[in-house]
Every structure is written in structure tokens, then in C-alpha cells.
Amino acid sequence: MFLLNQPSLLGTVKVLLPSTLNVPNLSPFQPKPENAITIAVSTRVLFNMEKEQQIYERQGLEEYIKYQVEHETEPFSPGPAFSFVKALEAVNTQLRELYPDSEELFDVVLMTNNHAYVGLRLINTINHYQLFIERFCMTGGNSPIGYLKAYHTNLYLSADAAKVHEALEEGIAAATMFTPEKMKEVSETQLRVAFDGDAVLFSDESERIYKAHGLDKFFEHEKEHENKPLDHGPLKGFLEVLGKLQKKFYGKGQRMACPIRTYLVTARSAASSGTRALKTLRSWGLEIDEALFLAGAPKGPMLEKIRPHIFFDDQMFHVEGAAEMGTVACHVPYGIAQRAAKRGRKGEETPSGLK
């Protein structure tokens, strides 16, 4: 059954859509939200809805709904999160083979403020691509943020920067996803996730030192504190759940064939500031499969070689550089760099930062 919001004269009511809508039965069971690794994605990142969004912005809600209903048998084309979601499903397939009764699986929730009138086109599209997405949250114009905690959300991806910021304020890992002009092909059998370090996995403590006192003071600070773990950043929890799933594969002797691979891609220098980053991860009991310390070099070319399904960074400079080279990159609007970016938009010159 699907629970949707239906506008009415009395306000918004819940509508149950029966399972006779030919939802593909790709799994013997649906994990409980409290046991699953819940990934909430908006419709605008899972599918390409650029044309529909333009109709909404230029012609209004009624024309938008009318267009969606008239085209509800036409599937949307894939969006930037599509390959990521397919990779999550590939991991689930292998987990079910190794642990048939386990509910520690990825559970994708479609989170959108669309109206229920659009629901049929979304369901038809999901069936067309044989995606296993059974949880919908359609809020009929209201913000979906309040539902994220109820779903025990581990990661929220959206094209709406304001909603992402709101989710982060609520302590939920979230990022704004951007669409490259031409997305690189990515692995269909191994989920690859790349993280920036400061203000993503870690707090922005070191970034604050850099912004306030410059690079030399930053190096000095990191050397003095190399044995003191950094505080956690907004995406630490997501790396934790990835690591937990990796260990399930390791426990079956599949370390080298694990379908999840993680990367740290940072502009830190290895010798001068890399020690603290690695010791912090070790203190958390977390492993990272590959660590790339670029010493200020652009991240785009390295990400092009890695070909991750998703890359997280707190600075738009690096997000844009990655996207230009075909990587699906997400902006995490957290930490001191966001203040510098706001000043930059007002006309002040801002450096690209430590990241």
C-alpha cells in the first residue's frame, strides 16, 4: 500500500493506493525503518524534472499538475541520484544473499512536496526502471523535513538548498545534489562514495584556523593537535553505516570483493596535516578504503579516475570542479566556509579554502 497526501476541501488527507499498481516485487520483505539505512531522495534528484520545474515556476501550480496528469504514462528520465540508488539496490541484492533474514539494508524513501496528482507518474516511472522504492512521502506543498526523523533518515539528498540546510539544522545528514552536464559512467556492481574531510566528515575546527590565521598557522595547529581527534561533521554518521555494512561483507571473507568502497578526497597535505585526519578516523573505529591528500590540487581530475556514484564537499568551488568533469557532486552547506561564500556573493574576494 502507498500512503499519499490528497488535497481536498477539508485540507490534506491521506490516500492509500493499493498494491495492485504493479509495484515490482524485487524483495521478500521491506525492512523496518529503525533497522534499515534510510536514504531519502527528492524526486528532482532521482529523476530529471527540469522541464516540469520550469512549468511550475513560469506557469504556476495548476498548469504543473495538469501537465503531470497529461503525461503520467511517460516515465521521467534518470536524474543525478539514479545511478546511486541503483548501486544501493545492487548492494542490497548481495546482502540478502549473504544474510537472508537481516534487515540491515538500504531503504530508499522518495521524499517530495509534490501533490498526490503527480504520484501516478512517479509510480509508473519507478516501475518502468524496476526500482524497489515502496516508501513515498508526498506532502502536497508542505516541507517534507518533519518526516525525515520519523523515517530514521541516514541521508537526505535534494535539489533544494533551503530544505537541505533545514535538515542539517535538525541534525540530519543532508546535501544538495547537482547534475553534471554529462555524467560519467559508474560501476553497476560496486557502490563508490567519496567524502571531503573538513566540515563534511570532520568538524570545521581546522578550517576556522585556516580562515582566521592562514596556512602556516593551520599546519602548526594540526601538528600540535595531531593526537587529538577532530569532532564529527555532518556526514560522519553516513560513513559509519557504510562501514557497518562493509564489515558484514568482510565477515564473509569478501574484503577484496566488497561492493562498497569509500574514499577520502581532501586538499590537506599528507605529511603536514594528513596525520590528524587519519588518526581521527581510527579513533572513531572507521576505515576508509582510499585516502587522497591533494595538497591543494583540484579534485575534479582525481574524482574522474575514481568515478564515484556520489561525492560530498562543503565548498561549491570543489563541487563545481567535480561536476565539470562528470562527477555527481553534492554540496554540504556546513561550517565556516558557508559564511565566506555569503560574503563572496556580496562582492568580497574569498579564497577557495583549505578543502
Automatic annotation (TrEMBL):
<dbReference type="Pfam" id="PF06189">
    <property type="entry name" value="5-nucleotidase"/>
</dbReference>
<dbReference type="GO" id="GO:0000287">
    <property type="term" value="F:magnesium ion binding"/>
</dbReference>
<dbReference type="GO" id="GO:0008253">
    <property type="term" value="F:5'-nucleotidase activity"/>
</dbReference>
<dbReference type="GO" id="GO:0000166">
    <property type="term" value="F:nucleotide binding"/>
</dbReference>
<dbReference type="InterPro" id="IPR010394">
    <property type="entry name" value="5-nucleotidase"/>
</dbReference>
<dbReference type="GO" id="GO:0005829">
    <property type="term" value="C:cytosol"/>
</dbReference>
<dbReference type="GO" id="GO:0046085">
    <property type="term" value="P:adenosine metabolic process"/>
</dbReference>
<dbReference type="GO" id="GO:0009117">
    <property type="term" value="P:nucleotide metabolic process"/>
</dbReference>
<protein>
    <submittedName>
        <fullName>5'-nucleotidase, cytosolic IAb</fullName>
    </submittedName>
</protein>
